Amino acid sequence: MIRAALRTGLISLALALGATAALAASFKATVEKPPADQGDTFELVLSVIGRDSLEPPNISPLNKDFEILDRGKRSRMESLNGRMVEVNEWVLTLAPKRAGHLVIPALTLGSETSAPIEMNVAPGSTAEPPDDGPIALSVDVLGTPPFYLQSEIPVVVRMYDSVGALEASADQPAADGATFTPDGTLKRFSRIYGRQRYRVVELRYIMRPQRTGTIQISSVALRASIPTSPPGAQEQARALGRPAMPWLGGGFDSGRKVTVFANPVEVTILPRPAGVTGWFLPARAVRLKETWSSPPAKAKVGVALTRTLRLEVQGASPAQLPPLKPAETDGVRQYADEEHPEAAQVGGAPGAVAEVHITVVPTRAGSITLPAVTVPWWNIATNRAETAQLPPVTLQVAGSADPAGLAPPPAPAAKSAPKPQATPGDDAPLPWRDIAAIALVVVIIASFLLFSGRRAGRRASAIPQPPERPVAAPPARPGRPTPTRPAVRRPMVMAPDERAAAGAVEAACKAGHATAAYRAYLDWNRASGPGHSGTASARTPAMAAALHEVSRHLYAGEGDTWDGRGFRSAFTAERKAALKPTKARTARGLAPLYPKAR
């Protein structure tokens, strides 16, 4: 008992150490929706995990290459290592001051430092008000041409307000030959153009062209109400840091109604290049990567390996990425999880990534070669077709020592959010104070458990044991020797509990373990009633078929994995049949000796 308690304490201590190490470097910096060009804005998120900080991060190094347009803070809960932790985030809206290679420098929060983030910003038209009016509207196409059919083109609509509009609403962009879908929520920030401060409201859309040629985004209308205060009153209020006050002109009113229009924008859509067939992926750079959970040269029959394929594409949207499906190969079973392409920084520029986890289970021994993985794409920089490729992989599969106990493949890993960038403090050792405190806690727990075990042992030895009651021997028969009792008593065999055995069957089926499911069914059959004392008998045809199938899997030496859903369904029907009371046969009355004629 003491050993079990010590083992439990050590496991808990290891989990606590893992959680402490995970939270040791909790200050991170990530970029959401990287800028497409110099005229685009983006958000930098600085997060601290597991705690809050009254002191904000030091963001002054950002002023060298970026303009800080807006800042805010938010909190949320996140699951980390099986427990919910608090995540506090500072959200900064930034605008690049120049094009080229830019670096978000390492930022500090107390004694913690975030990792720097590199990005390449393409030249573009700097977002400025199209005119000097009190309110203006613009429509801009982000990204760098050329644009091809069936691609996703980001479009941003910006409203510039210098007078404090009371209300405003703009139409959604529209074009003949393209569709538009909102992308994200409204972004609001303030920015100075020349000597005038503007409040900017920004809304993004995704344009999907349906035909080639020139597509014109028609003029977008903005309807707003602006205050009617005397000239200079609103400017004076803003200089004092006060909101717009339309009543400065005397009395309350709904303001003056105005309507402004954005200039039309033309987008040229190119057709698919001649000779290109299959999936069309226009991009600037494509990279394929793979990792294995264990070396392929040490594969074994029935032992699952996890192969991770990662596709990184620069200059493309997530919807343009092709699926990464493994090719069917003799000698292996492959199971791929669902991939979720996401927008991300690729080589310091906007792009998309997709990752898929493939469970590979060899079904025979020997040399097995998985074919090469290829992704054809169109290089828009050189205007020619290229191919990203991973070479073939050869598995040297050894035979399984236990063909009946083939391990089921692990469940594919769920696609998660993009991996946070590592920080310099991720591998930092724990402070000596924490190590000393943890060691002291371990010593106290071990001493308490050892002392409690000794006291329990002394109490058990002090309790007098009752004498054994003599067992009378049966009387001896004349002419036969007197039987004697054996000196060793046989232990009493406890019948398994029906509910516990049924739960074991369910758990084994969910885990995909055929051997455990078969043994648990025998235990359940022993506990379910007379006539089924641990045998592989069945009450229903479905259960009989399921037993036959699992027996074939266990003893035929098959290399494929076992799916316990059918066995589980048949066991549910079998358990219901066992719970039904058996109907006793009713005895028929004796026929009359001399039946009366009718």
Percentage of residues in strands: 25-35%
Q: Can you count the helices?
A: 7
Helicity level: 10-25%
N→C terminal distance: 83 Å
What class, by secondary structure content?
A: alpha+beta
| Unreliably modeled segments | 13-25, 246-252, 403-409, 412-429, 466-473, 482-493, 584-598
Using only C-alpha atoms, the radius of gyration works out to: 37 Å
What is the molecular shape?
extended
| Average pLDDT rating | 76
Major β-sheet annotation: 5 strands, antiparallel
Number of strands: 29
Note the main attributes of this structure.
single chain; five-stranded antiparallel β-sheet; extended
Task: Describe what this molecule looks like in 3D.
The structure is a single chain. By secondary structure, the protein is an alpha+beta fold. It is 20% helix and 33% strand. The chain is built from seven helices and 29 strands. Strands 9, 11, 13, 14 and 15 form a five-stranded antiparallel beta sheet that branches. Strands 21, 22, 23, 24 and 25 form a five-stranded antiparallel beta sheet that branches. Strand 6 and strand 7 (112-113) form a beta hairpin. Helix 1 runs antiparallel to helix 3, helix 4 runs antiparallel to helix 5 and helix 6 (541-555) packs across helix 7 (565-579). It is extended. The N and C termini lie far apart (83 Å). 24% of the residues are buried. Residues 13-25, 246-252, 403-409, 412-429, 466-473, 482-493 and 584-598 have low confidence and may be disordered.
